[in-house]
Amino acid sequence: MQEKATRRNSRYRFRDTLPFWLILPTIVVLLAIQVYPAVYTVWLSVHQREPKGWSYVGTRNFELLFNMGVFDESIGHTLIFLVGYAGLTLVLGFIIALLLNRKLRLSGLYITLLFIPWIIADIIVGIVFRLLVIPDYGLLTGFLGNPAIFPPDGISVLTAVRPASLLGGFPFPPAPAMIYLILASSWRALPFITLLLLAAMQTVSSEVIESSRIDGANGWQVVRRIMIPLMLPTLVVAIFSLTLSGMNGVGMVFSLTRGGPGSATQVLSYMLYSLGWSQLDYGRAAALALLIAVVNWLLIMATLRMTRVEERSL
Questions:
Q1: Domain residues of the chain, as ranges?
Q2: What homologous superfamily is domain 68-313 in, according to CATH?
Q3: To bridge 154 with a disulfide, which of 43, 145, 238, 264 should be the other Cys (CB 3.0-4.6 Å)?
Q4: Cβ(141)–Cβ(133) below 8 Å
């Protein structure tokens, strides 16, 4: 009897702990690729590599980072890139989604063709766009370098310096390379944003739109007063996705401009790459990584809060 009771208790104990054993591989993977790197980054941010080994320096890496002139410049470049990248992609995606929502002939083919840029890696897209404007033999070099079209001397995208700033130390207007980087990045992200907005448009009731047209609303009024308010939660998600990807993406900058000319396109993500892998300054790179992580966390919290507010108002 006692042996049967022991066997029964073991079986019950195994059944109670079965969920833990099922999720244990996932926990191990998360600890290996998420928790450990995060903890190690925090450790690196307060240490510095010396000939004798690692030494604790407290907040010195953050102080060195803040005292770098290129750090302030990179913040300005990041803001310009994010505004241009998110704004251009959102506007173009909304316009294309409106066209596809009209149920054109061969719309499935158009959507398939539109999705092609999304499946291409950032590095490949950057290389292709760089080959288009590379001096001497780029496909668009002759057109951009024509003084009759772009006076007085044409434009050399990859080598033209940034114009004199109109806002003090803020890097505006941007260099031609920054504008070209925004265009390339928007082309890469456009398919996903377009499909996201198209899915949201198709959830808008056609009866509501027809009723508004009967009441005399024109196309612009339907879009501004009906479609956009009903799509607002999706628009918030789209803006968040674009901002987060633009804040953390480094592949396009690396393959297209490499932060140049000079530092005209050096955004924070590329500065992080440069500190960590080019200069091997792991302490300052970890400090910058923590700052970027804080910004990402604030973006996530703001997006979640805005989404909740919009859901309550609908």
A1: 2-45, 68-313
A2: MetI-like (1.10.3720.10)
A3: 145
A4: yes
